[in-house]
Amino acid sequence: MTRIVYANLGYSRAIDGSLRHHVGRLHHHLYTPLSAQRQSLSYVRQRIEALDPDLCCLVEIDRGSPTNRYFDQFPELHGGSFGTARIDGKYGADTKLRRLSPSFGKSNAFFSRESVEASARYLAVGKKRLVYDIDLAGIRVLLVHFSLRYRVRTVQIAEVRTWLAEREGPTVVIGDFNAFRGPRELEPLLDGGTLFHANATAGPTFRLGPWRAALDTCLLSSDLKDRFSIEVIDQPFSDHQMLKIDIDDALRQAA
């Protein structure tokens, strides 16, 4: 079995999405205390260790910014126990951010038990542009974090669709799609039946007060349809939930 865990950490601000947290911890958006960050990161690390994934995909992790005392969160998570660990800025390889910019240090990351081939690719449009393209022992994994703006998001999704055509085989597209308009936003990726929405019935993954939505999405290729399981896991220090995906190795070998 191959296990993938995905989480949007919300920069470890210790805000669970409830109105109580958003109001009572409003200052965390501007300046998150180290104690809150370490508490959040400790929980995530313990959960990751318990789940024991082959690949862990993370979005909204801070390498050190004006809003978090320039604290590098990444070493707190992987702890050197994974064979491959990588973190990159979300805003484009050619983007030069000043140290005092609120976007400075804002990153996505992944780590894996074994050595993997991976590249950091950047979408042509949008502010959040990083996409990891990872080869996990024959499974292609694309880790995405699409724009909050609908028009930009549709262009980004169309570009990812062209990337998917580059190769065949078992594929996972996972990340924060920010699909506020619902599942119809996924249709360009699902047309033709090459991919299907693996967590379509698994429940919401994002909370903002009483509102719930399935913004965090896992798409799988049709050759993985019969031998996978997916679970939404509570993450009390973020407004997003974790996803755990298990894939049967026998199916991978046959694919």
Walkthrough of the structure:
Residues 251-255 have low confidence and may be disordered. This protein has a single domain (2-254), classed as Deoxyribonuclease I, Chain A. The protein has helices at 19-24, 34-51, 74-78, 150-164, 187-190, 249-254, and strands at residues 2-8, 55-62, 84-89, 106-112, 117-122, 130-136, 139-145, 171-176, 195-197, 206-208, 211-213, 216-221, 228-233, 242-247. With 255 residues, it is α+β, with helices and mostly antiparallel strands. It is globular and about 45 Å long.
Portion in helices: 10-25%
**What is the count of structural domains?**
1
- The CATH topology comes to Deoxyribonuclease I, Chain A
- What's the Cα radius of gyration? 17 Å
Q: What's the order of the H and E elements?
A: EHHEHEEEEEHEHEEEEEEH
Characteristic terms for this protein:
alpha+beta, Deoxyribonuclease I, Chain A, six-stranded mixed sheet, 6 helices, 32% strand, globular, disordered C terminus
In short:
The protein is α+β, with helices and mostly antiparallel strands. The chain has helices spanning 19-24, 34-51, 74-78, 150-164, 187-190, 249-254, and strands at 2-8, 55-62, 84-89, 106-112, 117-122, 130-136, 139-145, 171-176, 195-197, 206-208, 211-213, 216-221, 228-233, 242-247. Mean pLDDT is 93; it is low at 251-255.
